[in-house]
């Protein structure tokens, strides 16, 4: 369980991309604190999504909203700067990608941006632990990255618990994000394990009332903090 504030981060990948400005306004009005933006290159993951222009557009239409950019790309060190210049507040890079991870995380922070480290379901936490001092958040993927709407992998939950234990023991100022398959049915178990940032795409945007959907997800995640 975590005592950090619950943050809801709708993933723009699940929105109606043909009406992005209207969707951005819905997010702004929903009570969600962050917007999560998945950047996929067709190499690191078998899908292609957005470039820096999406971040630039969202920064223009969403004002001061926190833009959480998830680089699911092969060489994040080459492109992180472009997304920071476009308006990202947090850049998340994958441990499994081709780059010098510690150097990439440090360079992101040097530019005044939050740095996040993402790990896939099969990646052992021990490989991420030495990098936590360079991180502002750790993303635990609850699905194999690349496509929205996948089924939640509950076997990842012990990894979250272990990560939270390490973070508390070492007094690191690191949030834990869960991404993939997050819904009203799974948020409580994620929060109970130690996650406090909930990324959800298809679950939220499939509902007609986004504000109510965000409130329901927040209540589901918060129930673990009440019940333990």
Descriptive overview:
- The chain is α/β, with parallel strands linked by helices and 228 residues long.
- The protein has a single domain, classed as Aldolase class I (TIM Barrel, Alpha-Beta Barrel), CATH 3.20.20.70.
- It is built from eight helices and eight strands, in the order E-H-E-H-E-H-E-H-E-E-H-E-H-E-H-H.
- An eight-stranded parallel beta sheet has the order 1-8-7-6-5-4-3-2.
- The longest helix is centred in the last third of the chain and has 18 residues, at 210-227.
- 46% of the residues are buried.
Number of domains: 1
Number of strands: 8
- First-last Cα distance: 7 Å
Largest sheet: 8 strands, parallel
Mean residue pLDDT = 94
Count of helix runs: 8
Outline the low-pLDDT stretches. Answer: none
How would you concisely characterize the structure shown here?
With about 230 residues, this protein is of the alpha/beta class.
What are the SSEs and their pairings?
Layout: E1 7-10, H1 20-30, E2 34-40, H2 52-62, E3 66-72, H3 76-86, E4 90-94, H4 101-110, E5 114-119, E6 137-141, H5 157-170, E7 175-179, H6 187-193, E8 197-200, H7 202-205, H8 210-227
Parallel strand pairs: 1-8, 2-3, 3-4, 4-5, 5-6, 6-7, 7-8
Name a few traits of the molecule:
228 residues, TIM Barrel, 8 strands
